[in-house]
Design brief:
The longest helix has 24 residues. The chain is built from eleven helices and six strands. It is elongated. The chain folds into two domains: 140 residues, HAD superfamily/HAD-like (Rossmann fold, 3-Layer(aba) Sandwich), CATH 3.40.50; 110 residues, no CATH class. The chain is α/β, with parallel strands linked by helices and 261 residues long. It has a six-stranded parallel β-sheet, with helices on both faces.
């Protein structure tokens, strides 16, 4: 196919996001296991479960939905910036994090506020140790670099996504990086894709989107008139049979064969 520009998603397309968050959760849970007889997997499941309703009560909930910030990201983000919504989230974060871990511990039969506070401080440290990329991310970007104009488009807080990008070491492959937190709107809004293409000097008919989310990446690209490739690694989360990608690959390496490079 005739492609000049390729837009690529970050989280769980190039960068291991959910698994990294889970690994950091497990490492944090082991701190609790050193003090109490607690199943770490049970505690991790409890944190994910308890954090969600608390996050829904965040003072800037609409802002979080608008740019796409998950409850587990709220457990470690710094919320840097001058926006009043970011300031509100900075103020909310310590209580939110303590409450999530306290509720998770209580669900496991442990009432220890001091430990909850320690776990709330430990998780951000553990998460920042894990900027893991998929093993084929860099070789594929090396193959694409110079042949196409490359744009990275990702949902989330500007400060957090830039921290992930810097930690991954992948920024230099991209001609532009677009983060929903800088735009005030997130994928699947077609504006995000259109904005990235404008910065690349490209057009929808000669562009391709690559991502792992049917709803955010594929549907959003199609709404902007861009063909889209789904990276399907077998995770059914977010599947929607009404949204049909133009092509499906199971690893990023297959993108090279699809493009004939």
């Amino acid at each position: 196919m005739n492609v000049d520009c390729i837009l690529i998603d970050l989280d769980d397309t190039l960068l291991v996001e959910v698994a990294s968050a889970t690994a950091a959760m497990k490492a944090t849970a082991r701190v609790a296991a050193e003090k109490y007889s607690v199943d770490t997997d049970q505690l991790v499941d409890a944190v994910f479960s308890e954090a969600k309703p608390l996050w829904y009560g965040a003072p800037a909930r609409d802002y979080c939905v608008r740019i796409g910030v998950s409850s587990w990201e709220g457990l470690w983000a710094r919320f840097e910036g001058d926006d009043p919504d970011l300031a509100a989230l900075r103020n909310f974060a310590p209580t939110y994090r303590f409450s999530a871990w306290q509720a998770a511990l209580c669900s496991c039969g442990i009432d220890d506020p001091d430990l909850a506070g320690a776990l709330a401080e430990t998780f951000p440290l553990e998460r920042r140790k894990r900027h893991v990329i998929f093993e084929n991310s860099e070789p594929v970007l090396q193959a694409l670099e110079g042949r196409f104009k490359l744009g990275l488009i990702t949902n989330g807080l500007s400060c957090l996504q830039r921290e992930k990008i810097q930690g991954s070491g992948l920024a230099h492959y991209f001609d532009t990086i677009v983060i929903s937190g800088d735009l005030g709107r997130c994928k699947p809004d077609p504006f995000v894709f259109e904005h990235a293409l404008r910065r690349l000097g490209g057009t929808p008919d000669r562009a391709l989107m690559v991502g792992n989310s049917v709803k955010s990446d594929i549907a959003g690209a199609h709404a902007a008139g861009i063909s889209a490739v789904l990276v399907d690694r077998g995770d059914p989360h977010g599947a929607d049979p009404t949204i049909i990608p133009d092509h499906i690959i199971n690893t990023l390496t297959q993108l090279r064969y699809f493009l004939g490079i």
